[in-house]
Design brief:
The protein is α/β, with parallel strands linked by helices. Helix content is 40%, strand content 10%. Helix 6 (131-139) links the parallel strand 2 and strand 3.
C-alpha cells in the first residue's frame, strides 16, 4: 500500500521549463560573482563542480562537501568565503527568479489533498541546491508550510538523481519500503528510474524531459491536472 508520495520540484510541482530556469539562474548568479571571477570561467567551474557532485557515489561525503571541494579548488578564496557569497545571492537575488514561474494553484492543491488524506510527503528534488534555495522555490507555489516528511538538499544527501542510490537513501531516511512509495516527476531518466527499486511512478507530462529518448515505462502518467485527479482518488491512509 502506498503511504508516501515523493514529488520532484522543477517542472513537476514548480511549473517551469527547466532549461529556461537554469539559464536565468546562471545569468543572475554569474553577475553576483563578477567581483570574484569572469562569468564564463565561473559558469564552467560551476557546471564542472555540479557534474562532479552528480557523478559522486562516495557515501561518506554529502553533496555539499563534494561540490565545494571541487568548486574551491585552484581558487584564491576558501570555501567558507565563497559560501557566504552564495548565501547572500540566495537571500537577495534568487527570489527574483519567481517572475518566470507561471502562476498555478494546482501544486498546492495537490499537496493539500495528499496531506489531508494522510500521506507522507517528500520533496524529492535533485539535491544540488542548498536548503534555502529549495524552500524559496516552494514559496513560489505557496507550498513551504506543509509538514514534509523529508526534503532532499545538498546538505543532507550523499547522492543525486539519476542514481538509484539517491532513492535508496531516501527510503533509509524515511523508513519506508519501495512498495510503500510513489515517485512523481517529469524527467523520464532522473525521476522514473525510481521504478527499478519497486517504487511506483507517475510521469507528469506538462514539462516532460526525456533527453536521452528513453523508453517510457511508468505506472501512471498525465498532466498536472490529471495528477490532481489521481491524488483526489487515492484512498485515505
Amino acid at each position: 500500500m502506498i503511504r508516501t508520495l515523493l514529488f520532484d520540484l522543477d517542472g513537476t510541482l514548480l511549473p517551469v521549463d527547466t532549461d529556461q530556469f537554469v539559464e536565468s539562474y546562471l545569468k543572475i548568479l554569474s553577475k553576483t560573482m563578477l567581483k570574484l571571477m569572469e562569468p564564463n570561467y565561473f559558469i564552467d567551474k560551476l557546471m564542472n563542480s555540479t557534474f562532479a557532485t552528480i557523478n559522486n557515489l562516495d557515501p561518506t561525503k554529502t553533496n555539499q562537501e563534494v561540490f565545494w571541494e571541487h568548486f574551491s579548488k585552484d581558487l584564491p578564496y576558501d570555501a567558507k568565503e565563497l559560501m557566504l557569497v552564495f548565501d547572500t545571492f540566495y537571500d537577495i537575488e534568487f527570489p527574483k527568479l519567481s517572475s518566470i514561474i507561471k502562476k498555478n494553484d494546482l501544486p498546492a492543491a495537490i499537496l493539500e489533498t495528499a496531506h489531508k488524506k494522510g500521506y507522507e510527503i517528500v520533496i524529492a528534488t535533485s539535491p544540488i541546491f542548498p536548503e534555502k534555495a529549495i524552500l524559496e522555490r516552494l514559496n513560489w507555489i505557496n507550498a513551504r508550510h506543509f509538514p514534509y516528511k523529508f526534503i532532499t538538499t545538498y546538505e543532507n544527501m550523499h547522492f543525486t538523481k539519476p542514481h538509484k542510490e539517491y532513492y535508496e537513501e531516501i527510503m533509509e531516511v524515511i523508513g519506508r519500503r519501495p512498495e510503500e512509495c510513489l515517485m512523481i516527476g517529469n524527467d523520464v531518466e532522473e525521476d522514473m528510474i525510481a521504478g527499478i527499486l519497486g517504487i511506483k511512478t507517475f510521469l507528469v507530462t506538462d514539462f516532460i524531459l526525456n533527453r536521452k529518448n528513453k523508453a517510457i515505462e511508468v505506472d501512471f502518467s498525465g498532466s498536472l491536472k490529471d495528477l490532481y485527479t489521481f491524488v483526489k482518488n487515492l484512498k485515505e491512509v
